[in-house]
Amino acid sequence: MDGEQSGAAEAALSALRRGEATLWRRPGPARLEADVAPLDAAETAEAQDRFGRFAPVLARLFPTGDWDGRVRSDLIAAPDDWSLLLKADHALPIAGSVKARGGVYEVLCHVESLAEAAGLRAPGEPTLRLLEPEAAAVLSRHRLAVASTGNLGFAVGVAARAFGLRTEAHMSREAKAWKKQRLRAIGAEVIEHAGDYGLAVVRARDGARAEGAYFVDDETSRRLFVGYSAAAAELAGQLRGQGVEICARRPLIVYLPCGVGGAPGGIAAGLKAIYGADVRVVFAEPVSSSCVLAALAAGGGRPVSVYDLGLANDTLADGLAVASASPLALDAIGRNIDAVAAVTDTAMLRWVARAWREAGLRLEPSAAAALAAAELTRARAPDLVPAEAVQVAWLTGGSLLPDAEFAGLLGQAEALQSV
Ligand SMILES: *Cc1c(COP(=O)(O)O)cnc(C)c1O
Prior knowledge:
By secondary structure, the protein is α/β, with parallel strands linked by helices. It has 15 helices and 11 strands. It has helices at 3-17, 32-35, 41-61, 99-117, 133-139, 151-162, 177-185, 197-211, 222-241, 262-275, 291-298, 327-333, 345-359, 365-380, 403-417; strands at 22-25, 75-77, 85-87, 143-148, 166-172, 189-193, 214-216, 252-257, 279-286, 339-343, 390-394. The protein has a 7-stranded mixed beta sheet, with helices on both faces. Strands 6-5-4-7 form a 4-stranded parallel beta sheet, with helices on both faces. α3 crosses α9, α4 crosses α9 (222-241) and α6 packs parallel to α7. The protein is globular. The chain starts with a helix and ends with a helix.
């Protein structure tokens, strides 16, 4: 790292310590040709196939309106003065968050391999056989465990229980009560961990191994990452369908809320594979949990704990409240992240309220981080966002927030206006 770069990184880190928003930009050009490879095109194609194969099964397991079983979201226009398109993952089926992509995908992979190992289904046979009693008897003998601050445990737990797997969800004590209640109601075992969450994950992982349970590991799972990456082709198809052409003169800028980096990393890797240098990805993190920013600013390519930087990992954005990044995500996409916007809880809350008032969207603070990041990036790095650019904010969750929970957020936002 040269002097100027480390100076910029140091400035970003001191802003974070003061609790201020900051924008980190990758020094130097992307190294696309060499670095996009971690996402193998065949793996992404396999994910699309698997989601397609399972659509009839998911439609049966989660009958809602006339849902066809495809895990897809709309690309919608925002109010004119936002200058954004919105990827509506907050309304994804099954989980109401982006976790319906990675988390559900990993459950499908696992269920399929259990079924094949038990001779219940040969590759190529219809997946609907997995809903027959014979399959249910086999699946119900297997255990699956997941650890998460909330949304991953929820998505994985809901999907795993639907297939009849015995399911253990390890959650932090701060995880939202309604998510724990809903998991318990469908027969998952919810184990609450107090104190350091990272340590709880380690315990959950070791416990799962000792019991012979399959463990969905947010920090190292390739299946999660690949499941998220399938969203890139979906967005590309939607842009094409709306007649939006992406090129060097009209680049695509995508704002992606980031926790451990798996969801934004998988999506970003998929987009870079499609658009190359014509897409720029901006990750959005809460100031106090900006673990990807911390790792990239440190420059070593390895996770850095935000606690070691003097940050509290304390944010309203519970989907993003993690202290250190996924090594897998850093490896796969770290060098090609164009910028990281660290946004304040206040900015997220304001956008939760504004999205509701101006667009009727029910977003959780984590999803509003994408909107706050768009605002910050345009203000701090206008050259990154040329006037012709097509900008997409990835709204990652919120439609399932209970009324009381959402009203509480709006109340907090209102209290901000009055001070
Ligand atoms: C999990 C989550 C993210 C980020 O995903 P990571 O894989 O942790 O980076 C973003 N938004 C919401 C709502 C989430 O639940």
